[in-house]
Amino acid sequence: MGSIGGLEEHLQYPIARRDESVVDDYHGVKVSDPYRWLEDPDAEEVKEFVQKQVKLTESLLEKCEAREKVRESMTKLFDHPRYEAPFRRGDKYFYFHNTGLQAQNVLYVQDSLDGKPEVLLDPNTLSEDGTVSLNRLSLSVSEDAKYLAYGRSTSGSDWVTIKVTRVEDKKVEADTLSWVKFSSISWTHDSKGFFYSRYPAPKEGEGIDAGTETNSNLYHELYYHFLGTDQSEDILCWRDSENPKYSFGADVTDDGKYVLLNIGEGCDPVNKFYYCDLSALPNGLAGMKGKNDLLPFIKLIDEFDAQYIAIANDDTLFTFHTNKDAPKYKLVRVDLKEPTVWTDVIQEAKNDVLKSARAVNGNQMIVSYLSDVKYVLQIRDLKSGSLLHQLSIDIGTVLGISARREDNIVFIWFTSFLTPGIIYQYNLGTEVPEKKIFREIVVPGFDGSEFHVNQVSCYLVDMLDTLICCFFFHLAKLYLLGSLGLAVSLSLNSLGGCVWAPFGCSSYMIGFSHIQVFVPSKDGTKIPMFIVARENILLDGSHPCLLYGYGGFNISLTPVFNVGRIVLLRHLGVVFCIANIRGGGEYGEEWHKAGALARKQNCFDDFISAAEYLTSAGYTQPKKLCIEGRSNGGLLIGASINQRPDLFGCALAHVGVMDMLRFHKFTIGHTWTSDYGCSDKEVEFHWLLKYSPLHTVRRHWEEHPDQPCQYPSTMLLTADHDDRVVPLHSLKLLATMQYVLCTSLENSPQTNPIIGRIECKAGHGDGRPTQKLIDEAADQYGFMAKMLDATWID
Question: By CB distance 3.0 to 4.6 Å, which of 159, 209, 532, 786 could disulfide with 514?
């Protein structure tokens, strides 16, 4: 049994059957798996388990007073018009727009930027409940802007069905392409068809609900589809039967001459790179019909030694974005006629990560750097790489750069903690780029302009011997860095003043919106962390705090606007934090590798160090601290509460990878071995067993009877159509935690609840309709507020 925070009654956990006969032998080590039966989503026993857990969770959530208030507040804040950056094809512009509470964003088309917009495709008409969405990866307009090819996803599944619509009259063509997953769409310039990727269809008799199955996705294939033909007639362009785990993606170059083939095996930023000269095909692609031959690709890069992304080409002269001998990335150039001669266009920077480059305005490019988790944008010469212009950008995130090489008008989509969204329009056709706001997203009742945010370079010297370079953000009137025990010397004249106080002193944080600090991890590595809080908070440890992390797969966490977080800041007095732990891409490939494979424990150490800092600095205290993460971040939460349950009051683990010994056996899990390793290999098995959330749940009160400690209140969130991190991960961990910590003992010290939120008709997160987003936020943050004893502020 577990007590509900602040209530006398106890949770009555359902008893889940344990099959003690299921024991695996990993390299001589016996590992039991008593809940193996939960891996079958179609079994009646599993469905019954899920129903009982849903009922239990709902019974608790009904007692969370803030739940409906969060729902109401989020609904009000969500109800505002939202736009994405427009993109041009042919003589038309296309963009996505949501009027406010529409389930899915709607695609519009207009003849010019000033023209009248028309609805081209409204996914809200494809289902009554809004659970059919457009897959953005699988969406492309033909070069002449006559056709739209798009992938439809049902219930959040990664599986998509490609359809085609005529732009002029919005007529849906008969073309239907099935069993497509992880595929882009790239049109040939004659607009007769497009390249796409798919998996083989299930064998006859394998009737499955696409999205709920767990079998591995293998034997990816590249096809070309001619408009107006059946999928069975599509041209098989590439396959590799000897390497079933390979994945393929194709892109047609801007000049239409080449189709480029990118081959991947895992999630590491490495790929093979092949190309095919379409103009050299004797009878074009049509001549490949009826033949068993694959396209005659030429192998430029045929090993997984680095990442190569083509930026532009002038006939055979190609420019690539790469991490070859450059963990912070660089731009290089090669002539296909001399494939062994590579030259640098932009060399690797010493400190900043070259995140992307996009060819624009003929012979220019926009390059994007990440500098201490802050975006830097530049215009450079495409041929020489020389700097032409610096584009001013606030502290935040560049969500997208919309332009192609032929365009001199560029759209940059920007957001930050305090900026719901701004789309900037740059005219590069003038000597100095002209910048104006094309569209700005306004949230009723929220005015970010009342905050004055700058970035200030400070040297923080602690009372021992550490010299740290720190950035923080402030308002115009009063600046304060409190309870750090650090002396501060300022480098900007604009700063009005700065005071500090040693640990243990009460101090106020006045007049700033958010700061960035660098926290020393267990091994001394400095970990960046953003802290967002209300003004005038007293650093006395009394505040509820939400710490978010990810730390994997070279993915960077940067400041973005989030309606749910605004509700938490305003109405629950929450301090919101993002820890940029190792494993991510914030500082390039070295930072990524420092949190992968044998060094995965660094991720957990970094996150735990960030949590310790928040308590020692006076922002919060353990019983007021909630941690949250999604996917690989869900693994982070599961491992963190196993290792340091005493440090947290609440945990929200979304769609987490929890069974580290078997993850590679399900759907696309085999691609994650590049970051995690694989239990099939003895050395890697021992890495994984040490931190696998499913296998490291234990009763800490038995290990430390002098310091009894229970797990924090925990919610594991998953969804029935998550075919990326399949639900079995969360279900098995949920059953294990409830048994080990609660039901196996008569009077368990574990009184904090352990519950699961299991969503129906939803997947890993993509394509989730607005109402489901609001409902999930209401449930998880209502639960968090109850467990942290946070008071609602009107």
Answer: 532
Residue 279: strand, helix, or coil: helix
Q: How far apart are CA 149 and CA 162, in angstroms?
A: 7
Share of the chain above pLDDT 70, in %: 90
CA dist., res. 328 & res. 354, Å (int): 6
Nearest of 14, 158, 159 to residue 731 by alpha carbon: 14
Local structure of residue 278 (DSSP, 8 states): G
User: What is the predicted pLDDT for the residue at 651?
Assistant: 98
Measure the CA angle with vertex 387, ends 458 and 318; round to 5°.
125
Report residue 320's pLDDT band, with 50, 70 and 90 as the boundaries: very high
User: What's the chain's Rg over C-alpha atoms?
Assistant: 27
Residue 764 known to be catalytic = yes
Q: Specify burial of residue 690 (Cβ count, 10 A radius: 0-12, 13-18, 19+).
A: middle
Cα distance between residue 451 and residue 666, in whole Å? 47
Host H or E run for residue 787: helix 770-788
According to the model, what pLDDT value does residue 476 have? 26
- Label the pairing between strands 387-391 and 375-381: antiparallel
Bridge partners, 163 (sequence order)? 150, 176
Does residue 566 carry a pLDDT above 60?
A: yes
Give residue for tokens 């929220």. 446
Taking the C-alpha atoms of residue 319 and residue 342, their distance in angstroms, rounded to an integer, is 10
3-state secondary structure of 90: coil
pLDDT (average), residues 591-619: 98
Is residue 171 within 8 A of residue 723, CB to CB? The reply is no
Contact 614, 627 (CB under 8 A): no
Whether 775 sits among the annotated catalytic residues: the reply is no
Rounded to whole angstroms, the Cα distance separating 640 from 635 reads 8
Catalytic residue among 407, 764, 775, 779: 764
Report the percent of the chain where pLDDT is more than 90.
85
pLDDT at 448: 59
Contact present, 369 and 379 (Cβ < 8 Å): no
Give the residue among 69, 155, 55, 71 at the shortest CA–CA distance from 776: 71
pLDDT value at 157 more than 50: yes
Q: Which residue has the tokens 């020389």?
A: 386
- Marked catalytic residue, from 73, 483, 513, 631: 631
- Given the structure tokens 């959530």, which residue do they identify? 61
Q: State the Cα–Cα distance between residues 179 and 182, nearest whole angstrom.
A: 10
Which pLDDT band holds residue 607 (cuts at 50, 70, 90)? very high
pLDDT, position 469: 28
Of 372, 722, 723, 775, the active-site residue reads 722
Place of tokens 């080990």: 740
Structure tokens at 787: 């467990």
Q: What is the rounded CA–CA span in Å between residue 680 and residue 665?
A: 11
Query: What is the value of pTM for the model shown?
Result: 0.92
Whose CA is closest to 527, among 446, 444, 476, 591? 591
Cα separation of 107 and 404, whole Å? 20
d(CA 715, CA 11): 14
Number of H helices, E strands in the chain: 11, 46
Amino acid, single-letter form, for residue 373 = V
- Catalytic residue at 748? no
- In order, the DSSP letters of 413-452 are EEE-SS-S-EEEEEETTSSS-EEEEEEE---TT--GGGS-
Q: Are 397 and 416 spatial neighbours (Cβ–Cβ below 8 Å)?
A: yes
Joined tokens for residue 17: 């059957």
Compute the distance between CA of residue 5 and CA of residue 11 in angstroms, rounded to an integer: 11
Instruction: Give the CA distances from residue 42 to residues 17, 47, 141, in Å, rounded to whole numbers and listed in that order.
Output: 17, 7, 38
681-728 per-position pLDDT tens digit: 999 999 999 999 999 999 999 998 888 899 999 999 999 999 999 999
Per-residue CA distances from 732 to 24, 346, 652, 661, 713 (Å): 16, 48, 16, 13, 18
